[in-house]
Design brief:
With 686 residues, this protein is an alpha/beta fold. Helices cover 40% and strands 9% of the residues. Helix 20 packs antiparallel against helix 22 (631-648). The protein is globular and about 85 Å long.
Length: 686
């Protein structure tokens, strides 16, 4: 033994070992370079100095652009960013006589036209994948899901689908940017703390947002006869006022949204308002034939407008009125007449009393003719907001819809989504699908706005918290901030390409790293469609929770696979085994080897979730989300553990055959008559 310790390896063996280590290192380097070619590229754009840009890139930049940069004297961070020659961002003022560089100037001066000479990437091609989602918001039961079907048309020769640097003449393909770009805050039943919403306002401005669409539902501090409607954890008037003050300081337009026909569950569910239901058993829509219904709407509008006196618009909802013309009085009238007359009455009240322009969701109007809409005298009274959250916008709101609307309405709105549209119970939004939806809307808006006398009024990017008042929670707001950032920036610039990377990553407080040289590849790949991998070094408000959703999704998948393997694929812990208390203890021990790891991981995730969300939501929202997303996982593991404990406690087992299952008769299956068995035979094993 001492001899072996003094000379464990010969010199020749040491040389061979050394060469082997070198070869392994070389292979690892080659693999790393293959997977991450950016490791050998130039330093991150943030680190390139102004002198390097002016000396090394002067021949590529036009003299006019250099003059503009020097005249602005802006010390914005974009001075140190290396843009491609044809993607230098130029922002034009509302007067059109002065070019301003940087989104800081854009936010403070509230510019209306963003002009950029980069390529345009409109969504005119069906993606190579077919999304598999449970339901898209807006589908009716039994209806056809909103999904991708066919291309919207042929691409013009000067429009490029790739994210490359192909030059495009801006005069041939002008960029389309909606004048107003609203971010929708859906507050129903899950109110983020006001200070968290206030933190998002500078981010929204930096990304090009011009306003907020606030939908309070039961989170408004109603008083008087409406006091029972308010949730017990509603906002106070002081909290709402503080949010509006911050929005005003950042020059954001605020438009309130109050439902006035359908989606009134939060009021009609209560005994004191139940008699106003159109369908007595369904608290979804009110009966417009009752005078008390209009009194309820007046009170809702009056109390909301008491906090929004300076608003120029009021969104009065009116979407998805699933129950109409069902009561004894309304059933005698045509459905369209009932709907149009109620909208006219509500809009007339809003216009005459508050001098605001009402906005309505358009889905209840799409099947109507231009003559019917014109006869209802809605043309100069309301503005429709056309909403489609699927990728193929024209499939659900064809060009003919805009043809009809343009004959009646001087202007219109459009609405996309950044969350709450592709499944009622999702944890984090699919950014790829939302980006396709928003790019598609840019194309549709560009094509359809010339039909209207006053063009497109604006775009609202919705972020639904629930599909309706009774639904489970959709993706929480902090989990959707990357999706909001990508889609708001895209619609504010009119395209999605490489030139957006610096603005996007700075707004999301991402660290300087090579991975942030490139925009997320969401058009050609779905490998990081939630942006979990891309956002690991970003620290926007709520980033910790967003990152934790990646671990939650992985753990959920692991637990589901464990449950499937344990109770379905393997034959010792099935429902049959548990029902008859008949299994092998040794086999059960083998099946449960991963149970301690999964239980511990789930418990750790639950504690971290509480700690992260307590700064954003109140205890009720945090508990509800955890009950919907995490509690089912706890219960599945608990059931397996309890069933396993029962089976392992068995010391003796009966001879076969086991006792017949005695519950077949409830399914109409009578084993006794088929096999000629008497009651004694049925109750015994043999």
């Amino acid at each position: 033994m001492p001899r072996l310790l003094r000379n464990p390896f010969s010199l020749r063996q040491c040389k061979c070992l050394f060469v082997s280590v070198l070869l392994v290192c070389a292979v690892m380097v080659l693999v790393a370079l293959k997977l991450h070619p950016e490791l050998v590229k130039a330093p991150f754009h943030y680190d390139i100095s102004n002198s390097a840009l002016t000396s090394g890139q002067k021949t590529q930049n036009s003299p006019n652009k250099e003059t503009v940069d020097q005249q602005t004297g802006d010390s914005d961070w974009t001075d140190s960013v290396q843009f491609l020659p044809h993607t230098d961002p130029i922002v034009t003022s509302t007067a059109g006589d002065q070019a301003i560089k940087g989104y800081k100037a854009f936010a403070t001066q509230n510019l209306e036209n963003v002009v950029n000479s980069g390529p345009i990437f409109y969504h005119q091609k069906v993606p190579s994948y077919y999304p598999a989602s449970p339901i898209i918001r807006g589908d009716t039961p039994g209806g056809e899901p909103q999904s991708i079907v066919k291309p919207m048309g042929n691409l013009p020769g000067n429009v490029y689908m790739s994210q490359g640097a192909a030059p495009v003449n801006p005069k041939d393909t002008p960029i389309f940017v909606p004048e107003r770009r609203l971010v929708h805050f859906d507050l129903k039943g899950a109110p983020p703390k006001i200070d968290y919403l206030q933190q998002l306002i500078p981010l929204i401005v930096q990304l090009g947002g011009t306003g907020l669409l606030l939908e309070y539902e039961d989170m408004f501090p109603y008083d008087g006869v409406l006091k029972p409607i308010a949730a017990t954890n509603h906002y106070t008037r002081a909290e709402i006022r503080s949010l509006l003050n911050v929005a005003e300081a950042y020059k954001l337009e605020v438009i309130p949204l109050v439902q006035t026909f359908g989606h009134l569950e939060y009021a009609l569910k209560l005994p004191q308002f139940s008699h106003l239901r159109e369908n007595p058993s369904v608290p979804q829509a009110l009966c417009p034939s009752q005078n008390e219904s209009f009194v309820l709407i007046q009170n809702l509008v009056d109390q909301i407008m008491s906090m929004h006196g300076g608003s120029k618009f009021l969104h009065i909802g009116c979407d998805e009125v699933f129950h109409i013309a069902e009561c004894a009085i309304c059933s005698l009238k045509p459905k369209d007449d009932i709907f149009l007359s109620h909208v006219y009455r509500v809009a007339s009240y809003v216009t005459s009393k508050y001098k605001v322009k009402p906005i309505i969701w358009d889905d209840m109007l799409r099947h109507m003719t231009a003559a019917a809409l014109d006869d209802a005298k809605l043309g100069d009274l309301v503005e429709p907001m056309v909403w489609v959250y699927a990728e193929d916008v024209y499939r659900f709101a064809g060009s003919y819809v805009f043809d009809r609307y343009s004959q009646v309405f001087p202007s219109f709105w459009i609405s996309s989504a950044f969350k709450g549209a592709f499944g009622e119970t999702m944890i984090v939004p699919d950014v790829t699908r939302h980006l396709e939806n928003n790019l598609n809307w840019l194309d549709v808006g560009k094509a359809e706005s010339p039909k209207f006398r006053q063009g497109l009024r604006g775009l609202a990017i919705t972020g639904w918290q629930r599909y309706d008042h009774f639904s489970n929670l959709c993706e929480l707001l902090p989990a959707a901030i990357p999706s909001l950032a990508v889609n708001l920036l895209t619609t504010s610039r009119g395209y999605y390409n490489q030139s957006l990377a610096p603005t996007l990553y700075k707004a999301l407080s991402c660290q300087k790293a090579p991975r942030y040289e490139k925009i997320p590849d969401l058009r050609t790949s779905r490998s990081d469609r939630f942006l979990h991998e891309k956002m690991t070094m970003c620290f926007f408000p709520g980033a910790h929770f967003f990152k934790s959703t990646a671990r939650i999704l992985r753990l959920e998948k692991e637990i589901e696979e464990f449950v499937l393997l344990t109770t379905k694929r393997k034959g010792w812990l099935t429902e049959y085994s548990v029902r008859h208390n008949y299994s092998s203890p040794a086999r059960i021990d083998e099946l449960l080897r991963d149970l301690p790891y999964l239980s511990g991981s789930l418990n750790s995730v639950a504690k971290q979730t509480m700690d992260m969300l307590k700064h954003i939501y109140d205890v009720h929202t945090v508990s509800e989300w955890m009950e919907q997303k995490l509690l089912p996982l706890f219960e599945k593991l608990d059931r397996i553990q309890m069933d396993a404990a029962t089976l392992r406690s068995q010391k003796y087992w009966p001879v076969r055959p086991l006792k017949l299952f005695d519950g077949w008769q409830q399914y109409g299956l009578n084993f006794g008559s088929v096999f000629n068995l008497n009651d004694t035979q049925l109750s015994t094993r043999n």
